[in-house]
């Protein structure tokens, strides 16, 4: 079992605290270690760029840095300013890689197209009437709901990312890992993405409390 | 924010996406309330690592970024290095290592040459969120 990163000073009133979904994500990455290392093994290939949407505490990116590809480049994003600084602290606490930066942005806005080799996304997947409003979060400085609430079917945010995967992933070797709960109807999402030419694999599914969580892998057919 | 990051980002404004001027963002005009501040942070040097990062770099954009931050020492064309551990390559790779990985932009601003929007960097974190009227 690969070690879970340590996080000593997490302010759980400001930043999403790692929970079952995060730990499922770490287990999936551990299962996928041989695949990822093989895919990015060529010594002279350009160094892979690993990008996480929604860094939160930084646990997933830091786990990847320490255990999966230690010599990659790492970028992450979060709309929550506290998550941006927390994830940098978490990375530092566990011994920074050579390159990691946190960008405060919405999803992948601001990133140049075609750069991402490994995309990691544990989205706000909880169904709700709406997605949180940016304006009210600015007023209250409370960003936690952005890590949780995914609007209709819990898919409003994930859908945006899926619709733009072609734009952001390196289509030669890029691969995306995205977490879903059962109410997101992931098998239907997988079907839709296959019609768009994606290879979609269920990596792991797990009961977590009253939710059923799963992580799926997306890559482009050659 | 490390200088390598400036090679990975562009203006967020949708209308700029199709313009060649949306990248790189420019450091040439700083605002007085947030003066440019750079810092050095040690990162272990690996010549192979830098060599494997080189293919990812848009060299002309890096030249622009480096120049605007006061570094005019880079070679005009992207170096092609076959043997990263050869002694004759060490100085260049060390310079690139220092520039790309060890130089932190603690604060300052980046400007889009197409729309003029300014992106601020504070506590070494760049902010790409747009005010409501620019989001489409």
Summarize the model shown.
The complex is a heterodimer of chains A (222) and B (136). Chain A has 222 residues and is α/β, with parallel strands linked by helices. Chain A has helices at residues 20-39, 59-68, 81-93, 134-140, 156-163, 165-168, 186-195, and strands at 49-53, 73-78, 100-104, 118-121, 175-181, 198-208, 211-220.
Query: What is the CATH domain class of chain B?
Result: Mainly Beta
The helix count of chain A comes to 7
Could you report the average pLDDT of chain B, rounded to the nearest whole number? 95
Number of extended strands of chain A: 7
Based on the structure given, which CATH architecture of chain B is correct? Single Sheet
- Helix percentage of chain A: 25-40%
Structural class of chain B: alpha+beta
Using the CA coordinates, give the radius of gyration of chain A. Answer: 16 Å
CATH overall fold name of chain B: N-terminal domain of TfIIb
Q: What fraction of residues of chain A sit in β-strands?
A: 15-25%
Describe what this molecule looks like in 3D.
The complex is a heterodimer of chains A (about 220) and B (about 140). Chain A is α/β, with parallel strands linked by helices and about 220 residues long. In chain A, about 30% of the residues lie in helices and about 20% in strands. Chain A is built from seven helices and seven strands, in the order H-E-H-E-H-E-E-H-H-H-E-H-E-E. Chain A is globular, with a radius of gyration of 16 Å. The termini of chain A are far apart. Chain B is an alpha+beta fold and about 140 residues long. Chain B has a single domain (about 5-130), classed as Single Sheet (N-terminal domain of TfIIb). Helices cover about 25% and strands about 15% of the residues of chain B. A four-stranded antiparallel sheet of chain B has the order 1-2-3-4. Chains A and B meet through helix 3 and strand 3 of A and helix 2 and strand 4 of B.
């Amino acid at each position: 079992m690969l070690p879970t990163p340590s996080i000593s000073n997490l302010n759980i009133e400001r930043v999403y605290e790692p929970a079952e979904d995060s730990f499922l994500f770490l287990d999936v990455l551990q299962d996928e270690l041989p695949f990822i290392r093989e895919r990015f093994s060529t010594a002279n290939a350009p160094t892979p760029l690993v990008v996480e949407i929604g860094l939160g505490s930084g646990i997933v990116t830091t786990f990847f840095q320490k255990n999966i590809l230690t010599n990659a480049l790492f970028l992450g994003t979060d709309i929550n300013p506290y998550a941006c600084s927390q994830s940098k602290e978490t990375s530092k606490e566990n011994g920074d890689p050579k390159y990691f930066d946190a960008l405060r942005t919405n999803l992948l806005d601001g990133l140049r197209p075609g750069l991402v080799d490994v995309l990691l996304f544990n989205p706000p997947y909880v169904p709700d009437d709406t997605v949180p409003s940016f304006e009210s979060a600015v007023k209250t400085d409370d960003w936690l709901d952005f890590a949780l609430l995914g609007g209709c079917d819990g898919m409003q945010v994930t859908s945006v990312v899926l619709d733009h995967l072609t734009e952001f992933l390196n289509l030669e070797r890029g691969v995306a890992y995205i977490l879903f709960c059962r109410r997101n109807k992931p098998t239907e999402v997988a079907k839709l993405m296959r019609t768009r030419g994606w290879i979609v694999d269920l990596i792991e599914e797990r009961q977590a409390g009253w939710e059923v969580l799963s992580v799926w892998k997306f890559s482009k057919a050659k | 924010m490390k200088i390598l990051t400036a090679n990975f980002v562009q203006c967020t404004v949708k209308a700029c996406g199709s313009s060649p001027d949306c990248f790189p963002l420019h450091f040439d005009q700083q605002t007085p309330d947030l003066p440019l501040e750079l810092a050095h942070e040690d990162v272990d040097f690996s010549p192979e690592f830098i060599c494997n990062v080189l293919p990812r770099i848009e060299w002309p954009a890096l030249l622009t970024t480096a120049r605007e931050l006061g570094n005019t020492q880079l070679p005009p064309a992207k170096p092609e290095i076959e043997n990263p551990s050869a002694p004759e390559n060490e100085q260049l790779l060390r310079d690139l290592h220092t520039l790309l990985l060890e130089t932190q932009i603690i604060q300052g601003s980046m400007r889009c040459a197409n729309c003029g929007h300014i992106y601020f960097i504070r506590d070494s974190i760049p902010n790409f969120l747009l005010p409501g009227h620019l989001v489409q």
